[in-house]
């Protein structure tokens, strides 16, 4: 940011309560607003998953869960988790907090737009939650909202619920676009002196590419939402085929539901990486910092992020193998799906090689980061099965898929989010989170989540169908499957309750936690070098930082400390062995 | 420096003290609004491209009948649409004139040109609305045929983007009103000019598509693999 822009920004800053905490234009406050809203709506989705598990584990024991309610829980759980929690928390929360601090900027380049982005996001959440209170309740069409069933009578929430869902998604996309333009422009335009693109931490690379992807992918969801809205409200036939519903021939004239699927997944698959790439970036930085070692293959990691971003736009139809398609089409998408596994696997190897012979500190962020490597590898490997047409066809409608995607894009990003919260909480709040509570939280979550999602792969191979309220006439499924389902439910409830430990930890630590050092982990990136902890408005005091090196100078030979912050020039490094330091190329 | 060169950098290598190219090179020009507009235009392009792709896909189903190509179809002789195109072109030209006037430091004339351009956009929107009514009267309502549905949808989405542009123009007019610096006003108007020209080009594409005959649409669809 130029000096004049900084001056102009500070000039407009007023520190009244409203402008500081409610209508704030400060990226750090907006990040916290985004995070709290996302976590609160995420808790709603977590409760919904608990209700689903109650029905699956102990069928028909709970009178308030009928088939309609069950489908509504499934739908709202999925949509909230993917869009309103993960996307919002990773980009709106961490993106907002970390981008200006990590690149040495004083704020986002459009602070007003940033504020509007949050309030628009909040509106989208409120519209979505309002659907719980309208006649018929929220939509139960499944999170993919496939027509024709999504808008036909008989589907739960087909009157109001689906409309509120579509409107809410539209508002969310507007919010995302406002935020996203801010993120990319800030990264491209407001980097401090010396912060070249290739000196940016991988967190920023992940957020940057994910945001660009979002700007290209969310339009597909917007387009499909507008067209389905018109099919429902006006009676057009974009997606609605000629159809007889409840004995009555409807006026629709022969639209294509498959067209909707293409649009939805053209958004839906990049969305997986919109969630994954920021998580990849953050976990890279956390692993390097807590292993006191430079990230292995930085350039390859950047290329992999960019490559995954590009490739993610040509794999979408692997979600549609069961919809039927030209075999060559299936072959193409199976091939691209397997190819995208290459840069992804490369990242996994690099994380493991970063740990190799590192000075590993098993801190809380590190535990969650290592946990992520496990769950991501497991989720990724089952993805190799599902990417192939012939294996996907029998498995697609079973719990194998539920196990797979929860491992790879449910549990994995959630573990990274926890790693990130434990890592950056001292910077955000100035307090350390409680170590003991954190460890209980980690082990209960990791072991519990494995007990939930690993057996689902087995249930899927047995043929247990997903989305079903009850197993009814599926006699080929053995009794033992039900016993396993009950165990999964118990594990899921334990994991859900264990999250209260985390919430309690945050509250207790905020009130009476140990005061954090400005840089408790010995990190190199700029956010840990702020003059105040937590950083104040404008982040850097009178002088913006200057960057002299990349973000991964850990354990450099001949240097007294085992890290060199990005804003420390060579002449200011405390050297114990000049020859070793020189030989290390520093 | 191209993006490929940048991606080939080896940031782990030491840079000699005082000769670090990252610190010696001049900072990039600071104009975030232009960067934002470029990304926004890419996003809007994706929106329209996806609408058009769905149209081409949808056109291959039996109930789709193009709005031109036969004498009894409404856009076989789209005189009214040509008039509307002329109005939007005039709006774009007048907006460009505002920029030229600003370069000649004629602020008042430029402000008038901006208002004139906004007026022409409103006129265009009214004229589009008139076409909607004519189509409705002629039996080509929104649900009568998928091609009609697309015409209403695409023109509405295009219109919404124009309305968004008008909101941005209010900001620019505020800058004129507050007599802000010429450079600041000029940079805002430059962005508006880009946006106006862009939406004119989008309209030309939509115009061409909606007035195409079935055979032309079929050929385009075949080209896209439908």
TrEMBL record, chain A:
Transmembrane segments: 29-49, 69-91, 112-134, 162-184, 204-230, 272-288, 300-322, 328-352, 364-386, 398-421, 442-464, 484-508
Topological type in the membrane: Multi-pass membrane protein
Signal sequence bounds: none
Locations listed in the record: Membrane
SUPFAM superfamilies (alphabetical): Cytochrome c oxidase subunit I-like
Start and end residues of each Cytochrome oxidase subunit I profile domain: 17-548
Keywords, in A-Z order: Electron transport, Heme, Iron, Membrane, Metal-binding, Respiratory chain, Transmembrane, Transmembrane helix, Transport
Primary location group: membrane
Family in the record: Belongs to the heme-copper respiratory oxidase family.
Protein name according to UniProt: Cbb3-type cytochrome c oxidase subunit I
Organism from which the protein derives: Alkalimonas collagenimarina
The organism's taxonomic lineage, starting at the top: Bacteria, Pseudomonadati, Pseudomonadota, Gammaproteobacteria, Alkalimonas
Automatic annotation (TrEMBL), chain B:
Subcellular localization, as worded in the UniProt entry: Cell membrane; Membrane
UniProt cross-references to SUPFAM superfamilies, sorted A to Z: Cytochrome c oxidase subunit III-like (SSF81452)
Ranges that cross the membrane: 39-61, 81-102, 109-131, 151-173, 193-210
Ranges of residues in domain Heme-copper oxidase subunit III family profile: 34-215
Family matches, as InterPro entries: Cyt_c/ubiquinol_Oxase_su3, Cyt_c_oxidase-like_su3, Cyt_c_oxidase_su3-like_sf, Cyt_c_oxidase_su3_a-hlx
Record keywords: Membrane, Transmembrane, Transmembrane helix
Membrane topology term: Multi-pass membrane protein
Family according to the record: Belongs to the cytochrome c oxidase subunit 3 family.
Protein name: Cytochrome c oxidase subunit 3
Species per Swiss-Prot/TrEMBL record: Alkalimonas collagenimarina
């Amino acid at each position: 940011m130029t000096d004049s822009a900084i001056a102009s920004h500070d000039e407009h800053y007023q520190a009244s309560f409203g402008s500081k905490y409610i209508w704030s234009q400060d990226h750090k406050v907006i990040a916290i607003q985004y995070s709290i809203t996302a976590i609160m709506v995420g808790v709603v989705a977590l409760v919904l998953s608990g209700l689903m598990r109650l029905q699956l584990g102990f069928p028909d024991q709970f009178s308030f869960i009928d088939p309609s309610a069950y489908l509504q829980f499934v739908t709202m759980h999925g949509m909230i988790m993917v869009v309103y929690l993960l996307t919002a928390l990773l980009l709106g929360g961490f993106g907002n907090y970390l981008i200006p601090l990590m690149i040495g900027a004083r704020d986002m380049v459009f602070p007003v737009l940033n504020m509007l982005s949050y309030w628009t996001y909040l509106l989208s959440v409120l519209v979505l939650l309002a659907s719980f209170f309208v006649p018929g309740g929220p939509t139960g069409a499944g999170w993919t909202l496939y027509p024709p069933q999504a808008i036909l009578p008989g589907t739960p929430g087909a009157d109001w619920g689906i409309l509120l869902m579509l409107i809410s998604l539209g508002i969310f996309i507007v919010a995302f676009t406002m935020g996203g333009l801010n993120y990319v422009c800030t990264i491209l335009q407001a980097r401090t002196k010396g912060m070249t693109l290739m000196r940016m931490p991988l967190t920023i690379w992940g957020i940057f590419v994910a945001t660009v992807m979002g700007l290209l992918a969310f339009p597909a969801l917007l387009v499909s939402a507008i067209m389905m809205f018109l099919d429902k409200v006006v009676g057009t036939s974009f997606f609605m085929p000629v159809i007889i519903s409840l004995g009555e021939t409807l006026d629709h004239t022969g639209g294509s539901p498959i067209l909707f699927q293409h649009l939805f997944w053209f958004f839906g698959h990049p969305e997986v990486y919109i969630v994954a790439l920021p998580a990849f970036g953050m976990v890279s930085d956390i692993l390097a910092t807590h292993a006191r070692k430079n990230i292995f293959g930085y350039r390859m990691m950047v290329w992999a992020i960019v490559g995954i971003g590009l490739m993610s736009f040509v794999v979408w139809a692997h979600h549609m193998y069961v919809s039927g398609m030209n075999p060559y089409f299936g072959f193409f998408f199976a091939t691209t799906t397997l190819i995208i596994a290459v840069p992804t696997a490369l990242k996994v190897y690099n994380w493991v090689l970063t740990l190799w012979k590192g000075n590993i500190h098993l801190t809380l962020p590190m535990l969650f980061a290592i946990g992520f490597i496990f769950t991501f590898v497991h989720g990724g490997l089952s993805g190799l099965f599902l990417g192939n047409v012939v294996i996907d066809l029998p498995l697609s409608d079973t719990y194998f898929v539920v196990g797979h995607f929860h491992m790879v894009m449910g549990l994995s990003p959630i573990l990274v989010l926890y790693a990130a919260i434990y890592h950056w909480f001292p910077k955000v709040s100035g307090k350390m989170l409680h170590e003991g509570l954190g460890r209980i939280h980690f082990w209960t979550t990791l072991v519990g989540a494995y007990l939930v999602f690993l057996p689902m792969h087995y249930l899927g191979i047995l043929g247990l169908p997903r989305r079903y309220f009850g197993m009814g006439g599926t006699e080929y499924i053995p009794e033992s499957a039900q016993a396993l389902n009950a165990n999964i439910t118990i594990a899921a409830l334990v994991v859900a309750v264990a999250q209260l430990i985390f919430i309690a930890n945050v509250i207790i630590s905020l009130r009476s936690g140990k005061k954090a050092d400005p840089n408790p982990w010995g990190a190199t990136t700029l956010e840990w070098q702020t003059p105040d902890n937590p950083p104040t408005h404008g982040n850097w005091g009178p002088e913006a930082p200057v960057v002299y090196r990349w973000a991964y100078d850990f354990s450099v030979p001949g240097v007294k400390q085992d890290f060199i912050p990005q804003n420390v020039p060579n002449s200011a490094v405390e050297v114990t062995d000049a020859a070793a330091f020189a030989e290390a190329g520093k | 420096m191209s993006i490929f060169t940048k991606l080939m950098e080896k940031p782990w290598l030491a840079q000699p003290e005082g000769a670090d190219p990252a610190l010696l090179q001049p900072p990039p020009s600071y104009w975030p609004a232009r960067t934002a507009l470029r990304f926004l235009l890419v996003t809007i392009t994706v929106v329209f491209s996806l609408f058009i792709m769905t149209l081409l896909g949808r056109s291959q189903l039996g109930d789709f009948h193009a709005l031109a190509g036969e004498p009894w179809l409404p856009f076989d002789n789209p005189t009214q649409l040509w008039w509307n195109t002329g109005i939007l072109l005039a709006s774009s030209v007048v907006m460009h004139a505002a920029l030229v006037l600003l370069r000649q430091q004629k602020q008042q004339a430029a402000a008038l040109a901006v208002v004139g351009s906004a007026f022409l956009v409103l006129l265009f929107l009214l004229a589009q609305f008139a076409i909607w009514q004519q189509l409705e009267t002629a039996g080509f309502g929104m649900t009568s045929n998928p091609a009609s549905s697309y015409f209403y949808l695409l023109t509405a989405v295009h219109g919404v983007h124009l309305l968004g542009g008008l909101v941005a123009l209010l900001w620019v007019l505020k800058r004129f009103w507050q007599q802000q610096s010429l450079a600041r006003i000029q940079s805002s108007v430059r962005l508006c000019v880009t946006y106006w020209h862009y939406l004119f080009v989008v309209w030309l594409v939509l115009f061409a598509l909606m007035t195409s005959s079935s055979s032309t649409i079929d050929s385009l669809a075949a080209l896209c693999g439908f």
